[in-house]
Structure formats: structure tokens, C-alpha cells
Specification:
Low-confidence stretches: 1-5
Largest sheet: 5 strands, mixed
CATH topology of the largest domain: Nucleotidyltransferase, domain 5
CATH architecture of the largest domain: 2-Layer Sandwich
Helix content: 40-55%
Order of helices and strands: EEEHEEEEHEHEEEHHHHHEHEH
Mean pLDDT: 93
Number of strands: 13
Strand order of the largest sheet: 3-2-1-4-8
Strand content: 15-25%
Length: about 325
């Protein structure tokens, strides 16, 4: 292995509402191997912990390594996280409250575990690996099953007073809008996440609107994926175009609000929705942000899509593991 000592491995885990992705990294954060499992959150907290442990073991095994060579494990978990205790305070997409993730996983794997909000972890990965630490003020916005964010201010992760800063997905953008998983109405997440996109399309199909997606997947659209939206757009699907454009506009408005408040140097977008629909969404997002930001606040601010793609979460979790272990 050209990345240093074989006993200096770190594992990054991206825990999502639908999947668990684990990656094995060398000391210089070169990705060596990955493994993936479905989350199956409906089975409860204990089952998900078992599946995380299994995914870590699978990734290490696929890398032809041993767990004894792993120095630390970092996990990016959705929702509000206490990064000191490793507890997930509240994760609506997993239906967890006060879940002792670090404690239970350390019991199973006997390796130090460090837990961070998933989008804060993604932002760490972008900052340290993709941008090489070149910016001191960075905001990450990640559109996936839900929507979350991460903040690096003055070169340090910003967690806020009680560690829950960065819940960008739960700022209300449309009073009286669609119900969000957090219990509120009209949240950014309820308007522009993958869940929101799929729900809107399915509701409009039920109301009688036409889309090529039903020809591809059947009337129920049960197997709908983000990549299917891209295929539909390339076939000129007007329904999908309207839904995606609306999500991009809400994202641009959210980013404008955040730029007005925080004035970061760089805003990075990522997550499964952006990975699948970057070409279709980014120009609308940037144009809308420019329209809604207060004159002067957005001057010189870069808005760009992450190139780490699906590996942003595991990369950031590995950054977390390495830095906290040290």
C-alpha cells in the first residue's frame, strides 16, 4: 500500500436513511475500498448498529485488511448529533431519539468511534480533501433523502451553542407548505429533497398528469431513483422539468438566505440529487441565489458542486476519525 503503514487505517461511514456506505482509507486519506448495505431503519436502532458493524467489516475484508489495523472509525449520521458523546440526539429519517451510536458500535467493533452530523462530515471531506483546506469559510449544502448542511467558519467546524448548527434543511421557505419529517410545514427539505421531488411527482401523476416515468417504471413509480429524473428530463418530460426546476429555485433561495446571514467564501452543493441532476439544477440554483441575495453579500462568493460525489460522506468521516484519533 503506497499510502503509509498498513496498521494506520481509518474507516469512514456514511449513514443515510436508505443506505450505509463504509470506506477504508490510508493515513493520507487515499480511499482503498468500500462496502455498501441498505439501512433498513424500520427494524430499529439495534439492527442498524449491527448493519453498520457488518458494513465496516465487509469494507475492511474487501481491502484485504484486518480490523486490528484500523485506528479509528468516523461516522456521519443524519440529524442532530452530540459529537462529544457520540449520541444521535434526533434523526427524523431514522426515527431515532437519544441513540447511543458511539457506545453501541464500540461494543461491537472494539475500535474508537467518533460521530458527527453527516453533512458536517461531508463538508469536512470537501474542505480537507477536495479543496485542500484553501478556504476558511465554507458552507456545504447536501440534497439527498433529506437536506442538511455543514459550516466551517474561520477555519473551524461550527457546531453552534448545543452542537446542532447546520440543520439547513429545516428552515421554513414556504409557510403552510408540505409537511416535513421534522413535524413542521414548508421546510427546505420538504420542498427540494429527493423525498420531496418523488412525492410531488407521484401526487401529480395520481392527479392525472402525464410523465414518461410511468412508461419506464409503471404507474406506481415504486422504483423511482434520482437517475430516472435525469433520463426523463433528457426525453423532454415537462412534469419532471417543472418539479426539478422548482426544487432548484427553492435551493437557490435557501442559499441566498444563508449567504446573507453567514457570508461564506465558498458554497458547495452535494448529495444524491445534485450528483444525478447537477447539469440540470446548478445554473438555476446560482441564478436564483444571485437574484435573492442582498446586493453586495454574494460578491466573490463561489457556488459549486462537489466532485467527491457519493464518497463525500465517507471521506469526511475518515477525516473526522483521523483528526479525533490524533
Amino acid at each position: 500500500m503506497a499510502d503509509g503503514s498498513k496498521s494506520d487505517l481509518f474507516v469512514g461511514v456514511d449513514l443515510g436513511g436508505t443506505k450505509i456506505l463504509a470506506g477504508v482509507f490510508g493515513p493520507q486519506l487515499r480511499l482503498l475500498q468500500t462496502a455498501k448495505l441498505s439501512t433498513k431503519s424500520s427494524r430499529g436502532f439495534g439492527s442498524v448498529v449491527d448493519r453498520i458493524a457488518r458494513c465496516v467489516r465487509d469494507a475492511v475484508d474487501e481491502a484485504d485488511m484486518s480490523l486490528k489495523q484500523v485506528q479509528a472509525i468516523g461516522i456521519g449520521a443524519p440529524g442532530a448529533v452530540d459529537s462529544e458523546t457520540g449520541e444521535v440526539i434526533f434523526a427524523p429519517n431514522l426515527q431515532w431519539k437519544d441513540a447511543p451510536l458511539r457506545k453501541e458500535l464500540e461494543k461491537q467493533l472494539e475500535i474508537p468511534v467518533f460521530v458527527e452530523n453527516d453533512c458536517t462530515a461531508c463538508t469536512l471531506g470537501v474542505h480537507e480533501v477536495e479543496l485542500k483546506g484553501r478556504t476558511r469559510n465554507l458552507m456545504g449544502v447536501f440534497l439527498g433523502t433529506g437536506i442538511g448542511g455543514g459550516l466551517i467558519l474561520d477555519g473551524r467546524v461550527h457546531r453552534g451553542f448545543n452542537g446542532t448548527a447546520g440543520e439547513l434543511g429545516h428552515m421554513v421557505l414556504q409557510v403552510g407548505g408540505p409537511k416535513c419529517g421534522c413535524g413542521n410545514n414548508g421546510c427546505f427539505e420538504a420542498l427540494a429533497s429527493r423525498t420531496a421531488l418523488f412525492r410531488e411527482i407521484q401526487q401529480r401523476v395520481k392527479a392525472g398528469e402525464k410523465t414518461v416515468l410511468t412508461e419506464m417504471l409503471g404507474d406506481g413509480l415504486a422504483e423511482l431513483k434520482s437517475g430516472d429524473l435525469r433520463k426523463a428530463l433528457r426525453k423532454g418530460d415537462k412534469l419532471v422539468e417543472e418539479v426539478v426546476e422548482s426544487a432548484a429555485e427553492f435551493t437557490g433561495i435557501a442559499i441566498a438566505n444563508l449567504i446573507n446571514i453567514l457570508n461564506p467564501e465558498v458554497v458547495v452543493l452535494g448529495g444524491g440529487v445534485i450528483d444525478a441532476l447537477e447539469d440540470e439544477m446548478m445554473s438555476i440554483i446560482i441564478e436564483t441565489a444571485l437574484d435573492y441575495a442582498m446586493p453586495g453579500t454574494i460578491k466573490g462568493v463561489e457556488i459549486l458542486a462537489s466532485k467527491l460525489g457519493d464518497n463525500a460522506g465517507i471521506t469526511g468521516a475518515a477525516v473526522l476519525a483521523r483528526s479525533r484519533h490524533r
